[in-house]
Amino acid sequence: MGEQMEFGRVLIAGVFFSWVLCVGGANLPPCEFPAIYNFGDSNSDTGGISAAFEPIRAPYGEAFFHKPAGRDSDGRLIIDFIAERVQLPYLHAYLNSLGANFRHGANFATGGSTIRRQNETIFEYGISPFALDMQIVQFDQFKARTIEMYNQAKDPSEKDKLPRPEDFAKALYTFDIGQNDLSVGFRKMSFDQLRAAMPDIINQLGSAVQHLYQQGGRTFWIHNTGPIGCLPVNSFYLRNPEPGYLDQYGCVKGQNDMAMEFNRQLKDRIIKLRTELPEASITHVDVYTAKYSMISNAKNLGLADPLKVCCGYHVNYDHVWCGNKATINNTEVYGGSCKNPSVFISWDGVHYSQAANQFVADHTLNGSLADPPIPITQACHKQ
């Protein structure tokens, strides 16, 4: 309990410090975003891949939704905390055909999505068929059909579930994608080949932003990618790494170096986009620093070892993924949840826990790790 209180104190201190940094935006009125349109991968998927393929099963979702909720976590994702911060409902997945209400936006993210389209199926390595270009095509269709249906609707109750046509220009457009382009690259390419491919990957993300701008979007909140080398899955099959392969926190140094290179190029592209799209307000958000600071300070924050996983069975070289069953040494083993997910950074070895997502949200949404350094609630104001 004392450790959790300490974690809370550090969070509060960080938020206060961030507020001091962001006081320059204090005179700006808050933005009134009527909707959020999100593009991304499993870090921000609120049910897309679950709707399209096999649903995510228990114990996912247990900490907040008390049932699986289409999210690769025990609870909320950063995009959920974004919705809370701008006082909008949680986003429904565009691909969810039942019970969805799109009045306040739609989520086009799907688990396993990449920026650059991959020539493999989801059944091979879990890479989604809905790459960023497909998500943009889906948005275009969504917008066109929404406007058509809104204008044809005779009953106000029909209109209430649809975004107002004028809302598309006032909406918040969020991005969290690129991690899977790196993971595919690590699997298929040398570091030099991946580095050579990086400009094309970044340009495709830039093209998506340009397209949404042409469609009327004006406010963009773009996450960089996290320290992929710190995901516990990297150590699951690792035996006797060479000296220097891991950093002092057990992260794969070369993978984090590639993530930082991706982030450098992304930041440069965003600076150019501001010139190319003169009416846009584009915020670059450094989630890498938020995640790596949490991992490197885990002990001081009262958190478990960052390389330890809450959900799943991972003993020696036997692995049963979260929510699955397997037979090990003639015994059925279930990959269940740990007793206290709130002190874990990693939920399942690949995805973050709700507590970790909240930490990142608390350290980015206030603007302290954003460029320009402005809170998300004021992100519509061009700096």
Automatic annotation (TrEMBL):
Keyword Disulfide bond tagged: no
Signal peptide residues on this chain, from the entry's feature table: 1-25
Keywords, ordered alphabetically: Glycoprotein, Hydrolase, Signal
Pfam families, sorted: Lipase_GDSL (PF00657)
The keyword Acetylation is annotated on this UniProt entry: no
Annotated GO MF terms: hydrolase activity, acting on ester bonds
Entries under InterPro entries matching the protein: GDSL (IPR001087), SGNH_hydro_sf (IPR036514), SGNH_plant_lipase-like (IPR035669)
Family: Belongs to the 'GDSL' lipolytic enzyme family.
Protein name stated in the entry: GDSL esterase/lipase At5g14450
Organism whose genome encodes this protein: Theobroma cacao
Record lineage: Eukaryota, Viridiplantae, Streptophyta, Embryophyta, Tracheophyta
Name of the gene this protein is made from: LOC18600858
